[in-house]
């Protein structure tokens, strides 16, 4: 049998990501591929760096998109900053904090866990207690926006605490970038990674990262080589670095970078603060609507993410059947629960260009119809 071209169905993506992609972004993807050392491409790379500095609110020169998904941004941070024997305080309040622990251990570090409750923010008092008990810790790592639970942690307070104890910070902002207040320089974040497929509404597969001067100093003064050749920032800096004559490191995902450039241009046109406010506004409407049809939210109001909403599955409802029917009848994707929350919750995303009044009303109407 001859295999035919693949034409995916048109869905509305209101799960935990990927989110719907801006049509302008998919159009940018289709532009002609040029060489990744072409002067025009290099000019565009400089613009991507400036746009990412804008999105992260940072002046860090080492700000770039890693050519791989969010997990590779995570690995870039840990592989470059953790040396064998280093103690790293890892806050776990969901699936992605667990992956941070795994990263520390694979780098030969010792993970000291601050175990938090699923569906709650990381508790700064518990982190401080752990910092006091481990004065030789070098890094504090936490997830700003836990996609598995819908909880937002206080990144500003956690970074201030880490600084007080002379620790660097590694922050997961995969789901927060572009959707929630995030200030890399003002909050003193040392290493941060994100993804393109959530609130940037770009295609999946790239991971914006940024490193402070203190983080760069640590990377440049390591006693041991970074174990991963591909993710070693000392080498990547030769391609993305400041004021360097760009040299071949790996073949950049040329068209995906056009897409990222376009999504960041759109974010700049809207304004960062306006994008954060839009996510909050539609979150408020979604929560009001869900509560009006008798559903309840899992995360306490002050710790909720606007862009990822955890809703309890009502008693006696087959959650997988509801999701399957939403997909079949409405082409609407919402997410299932992960880990401790599997089978108990739905995760409704309002990310990037999916955070609209139309989507909120569509989702509420579809959910109510399917459940009755
Ligand atoms: N961290 C968080 C908080 C995430 O939500 C995700 C993906 O959903 C990741 C890390 C991993 O990103 P990716 O799936 O792009 O590798």
TrEMBL record:
Keyword Transferase belongs to the record:
yes
Does Cell membrane show up as a keyword for this record?
no
**UniProt keyword annotations, A-Z:** Aminotransferase, Pyridoxal phosphate, Transferase
Q: What EC number(s) is this enzyme filed under?
A: 2.-.-.-
* BP terms from Gene Ontology: glycine biosynthetic process, by transamination of glyoxylate
- Give the family this protein belongs to, as stated in its UniProt record: Belongs to the class-V pyridoxal-phosphate-dependent aminotransferase family.
Q: What is this protein called?
A: Purine catabolism protein PucG
Name its species.
Parendozoicomonas haliclonae
């Amino acid at each position: 049998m001859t295999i035919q071209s693949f034409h995916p169905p048109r869905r509305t993506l209101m799960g935990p990501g990927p989110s719907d992609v801006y049509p302008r972004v998919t159009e940018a993807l289709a532009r002609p591929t040029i060489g990744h050392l072409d002067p025009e491409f290099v000019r565009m790379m400089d613009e991507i760096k400036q746009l990412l500095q804008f999105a992260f609110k940072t002046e860090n020169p080492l700000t770039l998109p890693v050519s791989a998904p969010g997990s590779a941004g995570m690995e870039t941070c840990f592989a470059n900053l953790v040396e064998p024997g280093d103690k790293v305080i890892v806050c776990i309040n969901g699936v992605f904090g667990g992956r941070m622990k795994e990263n520390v251990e694979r780098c030969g570090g010792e993970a000291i866990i601050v175990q938090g409750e699923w569906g709650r923010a990381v508790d700064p008092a518990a982190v401080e207690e752990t910092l006091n008990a481990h004065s030789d810790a070098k890094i504090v790592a936490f997830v700003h926006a836990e996609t598995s639970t819908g909880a937002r942690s206080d990144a500003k307070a956690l970074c201030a605490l880490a600084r007080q104890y002379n620790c660097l910070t590694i922050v997961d902002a995969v789901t927060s970038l572009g959707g929630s207040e995030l200030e890399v320089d003002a909050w003193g974040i040392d290493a941060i990674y994100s993804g393109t497929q959530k609130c940037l509404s770009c295609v999946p597969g790239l991971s914006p990262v940024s490193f402070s001067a203190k983080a760069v100093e640590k990377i440049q003064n390591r006693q041991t080589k970074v174990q991963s050749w591909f993710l070693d920032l000392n080498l990547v800096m030769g391609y993305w670095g400041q004021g360097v004559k760009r040299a071949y490191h790996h073949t950049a995902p040329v068209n995906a970078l056009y897409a990222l450039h376009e999504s960041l241009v759109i974010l700049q046109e809207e304004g960062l603060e306006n994008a954060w406010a839009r996510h909050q506004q539609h979150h408020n409407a979604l929560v009001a609507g869900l509560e009006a049809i008798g559903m309840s939210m899992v995360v306490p109001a002050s710790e909720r993410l606007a862009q990822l909403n955890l809703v309890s599955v009502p008693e006696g409802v087959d959650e997988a059947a509801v999701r399957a029917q939403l997909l079949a009848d409405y082409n609407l994707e919402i997410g299932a629960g992960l880990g401790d929350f599997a089978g108990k919750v739905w995760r409704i995303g309002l990310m990037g260009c999916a955070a609209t009044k139309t989507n909120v009303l569509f989702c509420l109407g579809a959910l109510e119809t399917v459940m009755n």
